[in-house]
Amino acid sequence: MTVEQTPSYDSRQDEIDALKASLAEANEQLLETRYRLEEANDMIEAIRSGEVDALVVKGDNGHQLYTLKSADAAYRIFIEQMTTGAATLDDKGFILYANSPFATLLDQPLEKVAGRFFCDFISSQEAGECIKLMETAWKQPGLQQELALTSSFRKELPVLLSLKPFQLDGNYFMSVIITDLTDQKKQQQLLREKNQQLLEAQLTARDLNTNLEQTVQQRTKELYTNQERLTRILETMAEGVEILDLDGTLTYANPMAQKILGITQSSDDSSHYNNPKWPAFKLDDSPLPDAEHPQAVAQSSGKSVYDFEIGIQPPGRQMFYISINAAPIRDESGNITGSIATFTDVTQRRISIQQKDDFISVASHELRTPITALKASLQLLERFKNDGNPELMHRLIGQSNKSLNKVSILVNDLLDAKKMTEGHLQLNTSDFLIAELVNECCQHVRVGGDFQLVYEGEKNITVHADKDKIDQVLVNFVNNAVKYAPSSKEIRIRVVVDGGFARVTVIDNGPGIASERLPELFKRYYRVHNDGSNISGLGLGLYISAEIIRKHGCEIGVNSQLGRGSEFWFTLPLAT
């Protein structure tokens, strides 16, 4: 039988002593490690705070000296004394160094700032903008942008970030200056409030001035007595101003009045004016008597005259028209001492009115003719409807359709012109061959047999446009060639590629158009002939054509010489 022996007391004691010795040795090693850690922490803090400028390191090749370039004392003191925040970032955007003002802005200890990602201190709403700013700053040195910092209490502070990259020992870093804009924002807000208060005060003053008749009278009195101030106002006016005394002598004419009426100042007396007194006419072209001039009427009646139009005929020039407002001038006692007149050149307005009057006359005439013919044809149809004469009925129906088509064309021209004037023209674009459009259009010309349409150019040119509208333009060009060049029996339609466009030209061999009339052709209501020839039309065809082409973003024009025919052309975008 085997008997298990229990370890003796001495052997257990030896084991305990060995364990204690091992534990004591481990404690000594732990203590030494703790001392080394504290020493390392002290060294790091000394390096961070700038107390250490260099390190001596023992290596395989002996002791070596390492200078801490980032610990330059003067630079560090300068940075710490700054009133604005400053930080140095690595190429990933992490903070390598930050000064105390930056930590103060964040309301955090300095040791909790270093090593953090810079954009983590930006408000969450603008963190993305911060990252984009960092990325852009590497390519654009000196970049600045306003963002909001978030302090430890979640308080947002407006700051201006100024970023500039630099390189040191082959490594790239980013210098960031953080300027607190809190006070500036407060001042801006205060300034806005003050401006608002000032605006309200100005509005209040304006309302008061409106209701204070005495103030207005005082200012009016000052206006008349302060000649220098009055002159400055009058000389900058866009209207002509002239003042006459009771004898009709011109005592003042501002620069615009001198320009419009050909008035000049005397070289030896600045208060004397040389007034050519060009003949004045009424709107019916009869001479205007001196007594009926608005200023003479204002002086004689003591009442103001408004918007009185007269014509002025300078020698060797076309007559122009002015609109005059005249009022009597009174002294403090209410006695009339002269008159003042303001006037503007309204020649274009008068031309527009005349054009409208001419258009109404032309439109009335153009509509009356086909309507009268249509009415006569319908009356004859009604009279002979039971006579059983097919040939007569056919002829009357044809005349009726012809007259109705003419009325329809005139009305459509009016409606199209109205749409274009109001900007309501719509396009329905598609791709189509120009050659097909030329072949399909103008059948009325081909059927008549008096004119031959000749196509010139490639037949596979495809454009992207509104086919119906371009058909309308082409028909208008061909109709004009037929109408104004009846002796040109051949009308050529040339199509060529010009860059990214197709250029379509309608060519006739007619009498041509005078060069001075070419700029007016595409205006509303303009008709070329003024020789008394009986050519119908409202003067809207070329205007409508021009608006259609311009709506396509293209060009339209005309080349013509007297006796050598005309070329009307337009461009269209090629299909892609």
Automatic annotation (TrEMBL):
<keyword id="KW-1133">Transmembrane helix</keyword>
<dbReference type="GO" id="GO:0005524">
    <property type="term" value="F:ATP binding"/>
</dbReference>
<dbReference type="Pfam" id="PF13426">
    <property type="entry name" value="PAS_9"/>
</dbReference>
<dbReference type="InterPro" id="IPR001610">
    <property type="entry name" value="PAC"/>
</dbReference>
<keyword id="KW-0472">Membrane</keyword>
<protein>
    <recommendedName>
        <fullName>histidine kinase</fullName>
        <ecNumber>2.7.13.3</ecNumber>
    </recommendedName>
</protein>
<keyword id="KW-0808">Transferase</keyword>
<dbReference type="InterPro" id="IPR003661">
    <property type="entry name" value="HisK_dim/P_dom"/>
</dbReference>
<dbReference type="InterPro" id="IPR036890">
    <property type="entry name" value="HATPase_C_sf"/>
</dbReference>
<feature type="domain" description="PAC">
    <location>
        <begin position="306"/>
        <end position="358"/>
    </location>
</feature>
<keyword id="KW-0547">Nucleotide-binding</keyword>
<dbReference type="InterPro" id="IPR000700">
    <property type="entry name" value="PAS-assoc_C"/>
</dbReference>
<dbReference type="Pfam" id="PF02518">
    <property type="entry name" value="HATPase_c"/>
</dbReference>
<keyword id="KW-0175">Coiled coil</keyword>
<keyword id="KW-0418">Kinase</keyword>
<dbReference type="InterPro" id="IPR035965">
    <property type="entry name" value="PAS-like_dom_sf"/>
</dbReference>
<keyword id="KW-0597">Phosphoprotein</keyword>
<keyword id="KW-0812">Transmembrane</keyword>
<feature type="coiled-coil region">
    <location>
        <begin position="181"/>
        <end position="218"/>
    </location>
</feature>
<dbReference type="InterPro" id="IPR004358">
    <property type="entry name" value="Sig_transdc_His_kin-like_C"/>
</dbReference>
<keyword id="KW-0067">ATP-binding</keyword>
<feature type="domain" description="Histidine kinase">
    <location>
        <begin position="362"/>
        <end position="576"/>
    </location>
</feature>
<keyword id="KW-0902">Two-component regulatory system</keyword>
<dbReference type="InterPro" id="IPR036097">
    <property type="entry name" value="HisK_dim/P_sf"/>
</dbReference>
<dbReference type="Pfam" id="PF00512">
    <property type="entry name" value="HisKA"/>
</dbReference>
<dbReference type="InterPro" id="IPR005467">
    <property type="entry name" value="His_kinase_dom"/>
</dbReference>
<feature type="domain" description="PAS">
    <location>
        <begin position="226"/>
        <end position="267"/>
    </location>
</feature>
<dbReference type="InterPro" id="IPR003594">
    <property type="entry name" value="HATPase_dom"/>
</dbReference>
<feature type="coiled-coil region">
    <location>
        <begin position="9"/>
        <end position="43"/>
    </location>
</feature>
<dbReference type="InterPro" id="IPR050351">
    <property type="entry name" value="BphY/WalK/GraS-like"/>
</dbReference>
<dbReference type="InterPro" id="IPR000014">
    <property type="entry name" value="PAS"/>
</dbReference>
